[in-house]
Amino acid sequence: MPEFATLDHESLSSAVYGALCDALIQGRFQPGDRLKIRDLAEQFGTSVTPIRDAILRLANEEAITFRSPRDIRIPSMSESRYREIRAIRVKLEGLAAETAAQVATSADIDCLEQILRDNERAIADGDRLKGTQLNQAFHFMLPEIAGLPVLNGILRRLWLQMGPLISDAYIPGGRAMIDHHYPVIEALKRHDSAAACMAIVDDILLGGKPILERIEREERLQMMRV
Amino acid sequence: MPEFATLDHESLSSAVYGALCDALIQGRFQPGDRLKIRDLAEQFGTSVTPIRDAILRLANEEAITFRSPRDIRIPSMSESRYREIRAIRVKLEGLAAETAAQVATSADIDCLEQILRDNERAIADGDRLKGTQLNQAFHFMLPEIAGLPVLNGILRRLWLQMGPLISDAYIPGGRAMIDHHYPVIEALKRHDSAAACMAIVDDILLGGKPILERIEREERLQMMRV
DNA sequence: ATAAGATACTTGATGCATCTTTTTTGGCAT
DNA sequence: ATGCCAAAAAAGATGCATCAAGTATCTTAT
């Protein structure tokens, strides 16, 4: 069970929500982990009310599920669900990349290149957490550059659902995780929408391979257990 | 302020949430309407807790916003936001239509045709509410047929945000709202993915015209007021 | 009559008590 | 040892009291 960052947002509810989101996206929960409102309340040092608020919000976006009315858990993802999310990401991040390529300024490009440099260093240092965070930052930067906040929110929700899977899936991936980020930047520099879209799609499909393999491995285990 | 359907779900919270969703999707709130937790609690005959739960969930998906920490309102949509949502719908409903075309059974087709027949009758009867509901049912049936539940959830959230706009936008639209549904069904019958995608895209772009005009009208009014 | 300040009210956030249902546990019989 | 049933503990749902912050209203001095 992870420890959480300190609470410093607008309200306790949203602070807890933010902390839980971070924990999910960083892969600090495992599929199947059970959450208890009272336990979390103790860990956060609040009453149960703000925790409930946060849990309900997360449950609403299916980052957490109620297996039964009193059993709150991190869901495990089926292969078909992951494939669906991947297909959605291909369409939406493709749109983001296309649009970003049309409007990207040199400052935007600089920002992306900085992220990529930091990511290279994190991978060289073997800092898995930082690596996944920077990978994520790169992906979220594209809808940002494109000026598509709604799309950004949708992707954030999808990432929340994938979080528990990526915790260790990127160990074998190594730097394959970011190889496809370079063509994205090149395409943005040339304002080449089609190339930007293709590059990010490649990244999603190939970069997601280790995740798919992990899911298949886990589903095989499920089978054998039954 | 609308009246709400009776509560009959699993829990009071989700019942209230469902009722508020229905009200939003049916366009029974207007942009700018203010919600008060205590008032809603009285209307629903519950305490404030389930209402808060529902409101927080809706706020999380941006179907309602907290203008200030104590001022809960139905947001009005900017033109750029609507255009973004439309672009996202084009990608996602396009994907749903493509996939549905590959897997649709004759039972699925029958279901779509039934919806379309009912929709024709509703329009002929001048039943605006039923018309918009059936239009929505048609759109939600495609990801259902395609077996894409995540996509369905995303679209549901987007519809929640558009709900307050469509209440009267479809009056001038008349039956233009469903003209493009026929080519969709034809494409599904032929298992023609590309045609299905194109047809639904046409429907989104052309069917959404009245909504865009309403937004432009309201933004002009906003201008003049300032 | 008007404007500024003070008072009362409104309203969401938080904490907490209680209720019902589920889950766990302990003991007993096989 | 194992499986089953009952009692106890756990846990989320609901209701409600209180708090703090914002809003409206009323008073009062000019």
Automatic annotation (TrEMBL), chains A, B:
Superkingdom of source: Bacteria
Keyword Transcription regulation: yes
A molecular-function term among this protein's GO annotations: DNA binding
TM regions (residue ranges): none
Alphabetized SMART domains for the sequence: FCD (SM00895), HTH_GNTR (SM00345)
Keywords: DNA-binding, Transcription, Transcription regulation
Signal peptide: none
PANTHER family: HTH-TYPE TRANSCRIPTIONAL REGULATOR MCBR, TRANSCRIPTIONAL REGULATOR, GNTR FAMILY
Protein name from the UniProt record: GntR family transcriptional regulator
Organism from which the protein derives: Metarhizobium album
